[in-house]
Design brief:
- This protein folds into two domains: about 290 residues, P-loop containing nucleotide triphosphate hydrolases (Rossmann fold); about 70 residues.
- It is built from twelve helices and eleven strands.
- The chain has an eight-stranded mixed β-sheet with strand order 2-4-5-1-6-7-8-11, sandwiched between helices. A three-stranded antiparallel β-sheet has the order 3-10-9.
- The radius of gyration is 25 Å and the shape is elongated.
- The model has no long low-confidence stretch (mean pLDDT about 85).
Length: about 375
C-alpha cells in the first residue's frame, strides 16, 4: 500500500503454454469487467496507462475481425512474441481509492522451454519471478485439447498442456504464498474455449462434468502440490467461454516438428449468428479477483489503521505530557511544544485517512459480495 494515495498493488499471474489464449483472456478481463462494474455505481475498472489501452484495443480488433469472417481459426490471431504488461485499476468512485492489477503476458513457448539464447532465458527468469510473487495464479487450459484430442493422442496431452512445467512454477508460487500468509493466495483453473462443451452458452451438448473431471485428472499433481505446499490457498475451478458465439467444427492433428510428438491439434470453428461475443464465466472470474484482492487490501488497511492509531495516541500523549514548570516553560519558549503538537495533529490526520480508506474498502467489498456467483464456479480446495 502507498501511504499517501491509498493505492494497493497486486500481481496476477497467468500460467499457460502457447496457443491457449492468454492475451485474449487478459483483454477480455477489462472489456467484461467494465460492463459488469458499470451496473454498480461504487466501483469501476479501467486501464492504468496508455500502453495497456493500446494492447487491449489491438487484441479486441484482432478477435473482432476474425469473428466477422464467420469461420474462426484461433491460430490466425498472432501469438505473443515478447513480454508485455497489462495494468488495470479498480477504483472506488469519488473516494480517491485505487487497487492496481499488474498482469504480465509472455510467450507461452518460454514455459515450454522453447526460448532460444541467453536473452530469452533472462526474460523468462524475470517472468518466473513475477509468477512466483503473484497474489493470484490463473491457469488457462485448452478445453479442446482435453475433450477432442482422441484416444490415439491421449499420451501427448500432458506434454501439450505443459503439466510438468506448470507444476514446477506452481510449486515455487505455493512456497512463496506459504511464507506470506497475510497476503492473497488463490489459484484458479480456467478451461477456455468451452463454448462447445457447455450448454448454457448455446452449445448443443452439456459436458460440464466431463470437462471438470478431465481437468482434475490431468492436473492432479498440480492440485496436490498446492494442497501440500500452501494448504491455506484457495483453489477454484471456473470454465470460460472465450468468445461465446462459436461452435467447434473440427479438431485435426497436423504435423508440427517443434511440437510434442511432432503433432499439433488445430481446431476450426463456425461462428453462430449474429456473431456477437457473449463470454460466460468471465464475470465470475472478475468478481472472484476483485473480492479476493479488495478483501486483502481491507485487511492490510485495517493493520495500517491500528498502527496509526497507536502512533497517534502516543504522539498526542507526548505533545501534552507535563514535565514540570520550568521544563514546560522551556519547551514553550524554544518551540518544541508546538512541534510536538503539529506532529500529533499530522499523525491524527493519517489515522483518520486510514479509517476512511478501510471503510471505503469495506463498502466496495460489500458491493462486490452482493453479486452471487454463477453455477460454473467450483471450489477444489
Amino acid at each position: 500500500m502507498t501511504d499517501d494515495r491509498s493505492v494497493f498493488e497486486y500481481k496476477i499471474g497467468l500460467l499457460a503454454p502457447s496457443r491457449v489464449g492468454k492475451s485474449t483472456l487478459i483483454a477480455s478481463l477489462l472489456t467484461e469487467g467494465q460492463q459488469l462494474l458499470a451496473r454498480d455505481s461504487s466501483v469501476h475498472l479501467l486501464t492504468a496507462d496508455r500502453p495497456t489501452a493500446h494492447r487491449l484495443a489491438a487484441a479486441y480488433n484482432l478477435v473482432s475481425g476474425a469473428l466477422k469472417a464467420r469461420v474462426f481459426q484461433p491460430g490466425l490471431v498472432p501469438s505473443t512474441s515478447d513480454p508485455s504488461w497489462f495494468r488495470l485499476l479498480l477504483e472506488a468512485r469519488g473516494q480517491g481509492l485505487q487497487i492496481r492489477f499488474n498482469i504480465l503476458d509472455y510467450p507461452g513457448a518460454w514455459l515450454e522451454g522453447a526460448g532460444e539464447g541467453t536473452e530469452d532465458e533472462q526474460k523468462w527468469s524475470e517472468c518466473e519471478a513475477f509468477l512466483a510473487d503473484s497474489s493470484v495464479l490463473i491457469l488457462p487450459i485448452d478445453s479442446v485439447l482435453l475433450m477432442d484430442a482422441g484416444d490415439d493422442h491421449a499420451h501427448l496431452l500432458a506434454a501439450h498442456l505443459s503439466v510438468f512445467q506448470i507444476n514446477q512454477a506452481v510449486l515455487r508460487w505455493a512456497k512463496n504464498r506459504r511464507e506470506l500468509a497475510g497476503e492473497p493466495a488463490m489459484i484458479v483453473f480456467c478451461p477456455v474455449k468451452c463454448e462447445t462443451y457447455l450448454s448454457d452458452s448455446g452449445g448443443l451438448q452439456d459436458q460440464a462434468g466431463a470437462l471438470r473431471g478431465k481437468v482434475v485428472d490431468q492436473f492432479s499433481e498440480v492440485l496436490k502440490t498446492v494442497r501440500e505446499a500452501a494448504p491455506h490457498a484457495a483453489i477454484r475451478y471456473l470454465p470460460i467461454d472465450t468468445f461465446g458465439c462459436v461452435e467447434l467444427v473440427s479438431a485435426r492433428w497436423l504435423h508440427a516438428e517443434a511440437s510434442p510428438g511432432s503433432e499439433i491439434l488445430v481446431p476450426k470453428y463456425r461462428v453462430r449468428p449474429p456473431g456477437q461475443i457473449v463470454r460466460k464465466g468471465l464475470d465470475d472470474l472478475i468478481t472472484l479477483l476483485c473480492r479476493q484482492l479488495v478483501d486483502t487490501a481491507r485487511t492490510q488497511s485495517e493493520r495500517t489503521t491500528a498502527t496509526r492509531q497507536t502512533v497517534a495516541l502516543h504522539s498526542r500523549s507526548y505533545a501534552e505530557v507535563r514535565e514540570g514548570f520550568f521544563r514546560d516553560l522551556w519547551l514553550s519558549f524554544n518551540g518544541e511544544r508546538d512541534r510536538r503538537k503539529r506532529a500529533a495533529d499530522s499523525d491524527a490526520l493519517l489515522f483518520t485517512e486510514s479509517q476512511r480508506t478501510t471503510q471505503s474498502l469495506f463498502d466496495v467489498l460489500t458491493a462486490l459480495a452482493a453479486r452471487e456467483s454463477g453455477p460454473r464456479l467450483h471450489h477444489l480446495s
